[in-house]
């Protein structure tokens, strides 16, 4: 059996699969605050003690593994220590991902703990898409490069959707778009951290670096990071981080909600147009994530303003329900033996 554990900042999700990837048990725990996260995680996994000895491997989603960790990796105490170095690059995710590994290794002693990295799908990005135009000495010293994120989700969605030239849109609390050609990612909207790219719920997305410098000079690096990660994006525009609430407010003619929605849609359309160009066309546009697959209204707003989807050859527009747990299980299957 395989336990796929997905510990995020706002949820704990797990699924137990048999060798044929049939789900034997699953659960989702949603958080309104993180004060009792450790205790809830321990309680949740303790409920699975009856599977102890039957579960051969626990697969974990890990957002950022830096340049060293891209492929699925069996986690030892030493590797767990190394992975903690990258928490600062994905502060909304990595600490919770690694907490899941730490707790699971104690509750299921002797069971293999395997990290599956969001960045893995992008390990083959072409240089023109992965290298930042900074001095080479700086890039090498600090490891600056475009890693890409949501790779587990994009890979899963694109494989289910099919096509040679795919634009995959993962839209949720965090959002990103990936251009995929013949099964390989050739560009993606997120970069060195999950801050780059689309306007997100509380993350800014693409921003003039001069603004970051000015904020850091005026406030502090710590306050600047908090603003960019937690107070920006749609929250910064209209004060809301729930897309259902934003859509409701927009229907009620709330000006700030309407503006937030326009910015969200516009950034997505801009990236789709850019990726249509670099792919040399597109045969499949696939939406996944809680918003991407869950909101027909958002998909209509995005696609309704994109004439390129109908010319010269009509693009297939598909939705794939997010299932990162299945994708993780497929990646760690070889460790079950």
From TrEMBL:
InterPro entries: Ac/propionate_kinase, Aliphatic_acid_kin_short-chain, Aliphatic_acid_kinase_CS, ATPase_NBD. Its main location: cytoplasm. This is Acetate kinase. It comes from Candidatus Nealsonbacteria bacterium RIFCSPHIGHO2_01_FULL_43_31. GO terms for cellular component: cytoplasm. It is found in: Cytoplasm. The keyword Nucleus does not apply. Pfam families: Acetate_kinase. Catalyzes the formation of acetyl phosphate from acetate and ATP. Can also catalyze the reverse reaction. Its EC number is 2.7.2.1. Homodimer. Mg(2+) binds at residues 6, 324. One of its GO terms (biological process) is acetate metabolic process. Mg(2+). Can also accept Mn(2+).
């Amino acid at each position: 059996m395989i336990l796929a554990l997905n510990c995020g900042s706002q949820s704990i999700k797990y699924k137990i699969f048999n060798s044929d990837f049939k789900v034997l048990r699953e659960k989702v725990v949603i958080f309104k605050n993180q004060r009792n996260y450790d205790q809830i995680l321990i309680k949740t996994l303790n409920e699975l003690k009856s599977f102890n000895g039957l579960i051969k491997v626990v697969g974990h989603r890990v957002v950022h593994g830096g340049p060293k960790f891209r492929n699925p990796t069996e986690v030892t105490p030493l590797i767990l220590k190394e992975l903690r170095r990258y928490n600062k690059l994905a502060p909304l995710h990595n600490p919770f991902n690694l907490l899941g590994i730490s707790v699971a290794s104690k509750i299921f002693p002797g069971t293999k703990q395997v990290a599956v990295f969001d960045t893995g799908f992008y390990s083959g990005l072409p240089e023109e898409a992965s290298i930042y135009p900074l001095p080479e000495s700086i890039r090498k010293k600090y490891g600056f490069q475009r890693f890409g994120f949501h790779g587990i989700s994009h890979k899963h969605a694109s494989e289910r959707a099919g096509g040679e030239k795919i634009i995959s849109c993962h839209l949720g609390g965090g959002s990103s778009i990936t251009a995929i050609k013949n099964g390989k990612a050739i560009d993606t909207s997120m970069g060195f951290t999950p801050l780059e790219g689309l306007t997100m719920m509380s993350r800014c997305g693409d921003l003039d670096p001069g603004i970051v410098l000015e904020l850091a000079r005026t406030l502090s690096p710590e306050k600047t990071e908090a603003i960019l990660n937690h107070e920006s994006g749609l929250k910064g525009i209209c004060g809301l981080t729930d897309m259902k609430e934003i859509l409701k407010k927009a229907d009620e003619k709330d000006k700030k909600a309407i503006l937030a929605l326009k910015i969200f849609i516009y950034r997505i359309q801009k990236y789709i147009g850019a990726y249509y160009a670099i792919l040399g066309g597109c045969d499949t546009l696939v939406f996944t994530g809680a918003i991407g697959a869950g909101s027909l209204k958002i998909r209509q707003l995005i696609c309704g303003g994109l004439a390129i989807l109908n010319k010269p050859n009509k693009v297939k527009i598909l939705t794939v329900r997010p299932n990162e747990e299945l994708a993780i299980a497929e990646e760690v299957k070889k460790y079950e033996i």
